[in-house]
Fold this sequence. Notes:
The complex is a heterodimer.
Chain A: E1 5-9, H1 12-28, H2 33-52, E2 57-66, E3 69-78, H3 86-89, H4 103-110, E4 113-119, E5 123-131
Antiparallel strand pairs in A: 1-2, 2-3, 3-5, 4-5
Helix pairs in contact in A: 1-2, 2-4
Chain B: E1 7-10, E2 13-17, H1 24-41, E3 45-49, H2 58-73, E4 77-81, H3 85-94, E5 102-104, H4 107-122
Parallel strand pairs in B: 2-3, 3-4, 4-5
Antiparallel strand pairs in B: 1-2
Bound molecules: adenosine-5'-triphosphate and magnesium ion.
Adenosine-5'-triphosphate (ATP) binds near residues 78, 99 and 100 of chain A.
Amino acid sequence: MTEPAVLSIxxxxxxxxxxxxxxxxxQDCRLSLVEQTKLVTAASELARNAxxxxxxxxxxxxxVDEFGRRGVRVVFADxxxxxxxxxxxxxxxxxxxNGMGLGxxxxxxxxxxxxxxxxxxxGTTVTITKWAR
Amino acid sequence: MSEQVPILQIGQVLLxxxxxxxxxxxxxxxxxxxxxxxxxxxxxxxxxxxxxxEIVDSFVGRMLATIATISRLLDADTVVVGMRPAVAIxxxxxxxxxxGVTTALTLDKGLRVLERRRLEAAAGDGxxxxxxxxxxxxxxxxxxx
Lengths: 133, 145
Ligand SMILES: Nc1ncnc2c1ncn2[C@@H]1O[C@H](COP(=O)(O)OP(=O)(O)OP(=O)(O)O)[C@@H](O)[C@H]1O
Ligand SMILES: [Mg+2]
């Protein structure tokens, strides 16, 4: 188990840094190229959501070993307004702004484990994991 | 600071090659810049080379689709070239079909798509031609995961 990488996402550059940090962990974890690409894409979506809707947040990324499996886990947390209707937010094409409404639903498809925890007025935490095969 | 992506003009074609991981601001700036360059240069084609691009997320995907739509309105065709197989696979799973964006596997093939369109336009016939993959992935079917 390596030290988790912690990053604050407070501007556009934070989204770029999030992609680069996750890419490098995915390589260390020996995910396949396609798996790396899926994980980094999901991270990019969630980092942008934390920035735009959460008003900024943090990303914590690490390599995890669980039940004999190895993978990369990334946690995005913000203290923004939270999501009132999580099912709606996870619907393909639903956006409250002018996005395409694919970030949350799409990243859920791109990873192996996806946990969305949000409370109105307190913020949103999304935890994703991609396991090496 | 976000980077500026150079836009090259070769004859009637504007060529953009994305070489670095662009932040969202730079992506938007590229979109705006390309639209004004299409008008200024009277180009009839735009090639966006994403050979070096490691991921296309919803933001970049939307930019590609928007550039294709804008340039169509400005009487130019857009071809996106060099998409990596892993990127294509990921885009499909993300839910982005990029319908309406013409793709070609290589820069060379992309330029030939534009050349053919130009000839057809000159002949007064704007039909789609084989070779260009319209509205869908995988580009050219060269996908293995
Ligand atoms: N961290 C967050 N805090 C508050 N609301 C959020 C957060 N993330 C997502 N949402 C809400 O969920 C909706 C759907 O998010 P999603 O990422 O799927 O789409 P989008 O960001 O609107 O568009 P896209 O990501 O496709 O450009 C958002 O429009 C927003 O209302
Ligand atoms: Mg989003």
